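Question (not urgent): is this output format expected?
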Amino acid sequence: MRAWVQAVKGHPSGVLLVAQLVAVLAYPFFGDTPGGRTAIGIFGVLVLLVAVYAVRATPALTWVAVVIGVPVVALTVAEGLAPDNEAVLLWSALLHAAFYGYTGYGLIRYLFDDTWVTRDEIFAVGANFTVVSWMFAYLYLALQVLYPGSFVAFQGEGTRTFLELLYLSFANLTSVGLSDVIAVLPHARAVVIIEQVAGVMYVALIIARVVGLTITRWRN
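Got this back:
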């Protein structure tokens, strides 16, 4: 048990990556119901705590993550209890996006802080990718509240679930384009374009830098 605890403390980015992926796999089992959203919300609180702990290992300011994270936790619980309240849903989505955005910023600073690639920094590459994907998914959720009908799917028009928006986000960030969810209104399409550019730049700047430093370390 002590070895596991030390491994978790030594690889906070790895724990964050696993938590994000577990959250993705958990969504289909709970469904888009009030009870399911509450359960996912509670798990989301745990993921947020892991994210704050991961940011602590970065050069970013921990107090900023805490200041944003506290209202996010409260709104996550409120969203599960009042799923039809659009004001709660909007502010929850915006603050979630801000929190994940700052977490991504902290992880990027962590990756660019030195020229020596550690095992946790390798995990941070994957963790940051999932964090950015969740950030854009929450931005899409906020857009859907502000501009109903921003996204359509093969089922037709209607309100898209968070899992559908997360699916769209991962499809755009990875640039595979394999999503049946499509942005149709101007504001939604503008944000999708930004995410597509971010996905290309992520590979060109961050992954390329980590791979280059890893090869240099191996040669040295």
